[in-house]
Design a protein that fits this description.
It is built from nine helices and seven strands. It is α/β, with parallel strands linked by helices and 253 residues long. Strands 3-2-1-4-5-7-6 form a seven-stranded mixed sheet, with helices on both faces. Helix 1 crosses helix 5, helix 1 packs antiparallel against helix 9 and helix 8 packs across helix 9. The chain is globular.
Length: 253
């Protein structure tokens, strides 16, 4: 029987998170690539730096006690940081069970024990009740999703008047696609900001992976290092034409 796309992604990211959690090298390389904008307590495996965290806080406009969703939460750092800063509860979901377990184990370090919940789900199928969130973030997860279906699912789980703030990146008319897909999902685009420094951050990070190949292979193993190096080889030529955005949308009402 052929594995479903969801099963393939889950297997990939389970291995990804398990290997990287076992050694601090990958975190150090992200920190080196981001410089003094690196959020050490978040320890992101994404482009989420301190600048982006501040933008997310301002655009979500949540009140203490409300509920924030983190779609494609990975190991939970972004959602936990934001929930702590905003005084809200958190529900995060990810396709990887390994990531969900790691995220659950981090909640206490953010003083979020009892106020954060993590579960398995995808961007297109969160398995959350309708209108159960007051706001939602999604950082660097759209590349592995059907964007139109994902936005429709996000709209379903956010209450009227709530906001979702997502990162989008790619080549061509990324902004046009973001606006069209938001409208098709019944969402109102409030603001789009170009993240001018995002492609350069990835270029620095990919360069570090390539320069430190031998150390990387010792740290995370040949299989995981090979995947990372193939990603770098595939992505580096595309970065010059890459546009990265932060898109803020609102559910009408």
């Amino acid at each position: 029987m052929t594995d479903t796309r969801e099963e393939v992604l889950a297997e990939h990211f389970d291995a990804f998170h398990t290997a990287r959690a076992a050694h601090g090298l990958v975190d150090r390389l992200y920190a080196e690539a981001m410089g003094d904008a690196y959020p050490h307590d978040v320890a992101p495996y994404s482009s989420c730096d301190l600048v982006l965290l501040g933008q997310l806080v301002g655009r979500l406009r949540l009140r203490p006690g409300q509920v924030l969703g983190d779609a494609g939460c990975g190991t939970g750092g972004v959602g936990l940081w934001l929930a702590r800063a905003l005084g809200v509860r958190l529900v995060g979901w990810d396709v990887s069970l390994a990531a969900v377990r790691l995220a659950t184990g981090r909640a206490a370090r953010f003083a979020m024990a009892g106020r954060a919940e993590f579960r398995v789900g995808t961007l297109e199928a969160s398995r959350l009740p309708e209108e159960s969130l007051d706001g939602l973030v999604c950082v660097d997860a759209f590349a592995n999703a059907d964007a139109g279906r994902a936005l429709g699912e996000m709209r379903r789980v956010i209450r009227a008047g709530g906001r979702l703030v997502v990162t989008r990146a790619g080549t061509g008319d990324v902004q046009g696609r973001a606006v069209t897909q938001a409208a098709e999902a019944g969402l109102v685009v409030e603001e789009i900001v170009v993240r001018a420094g995002e492609p350069a951050m990835w270029e620095r990070l990919y360069g570090l992976w390539q320069e430190r190949e031998a150390e990387l292979r010792r740290a995370v193993g040949d299989e995981q290092a090979g995947r990372m190096l193939r990603e770098a080889e595939r992505m580096v030529p595309r970065l010059a034409a890459r546009t990265a955005l932060l898109v803020t949308m609102r559910v009408p009402g």
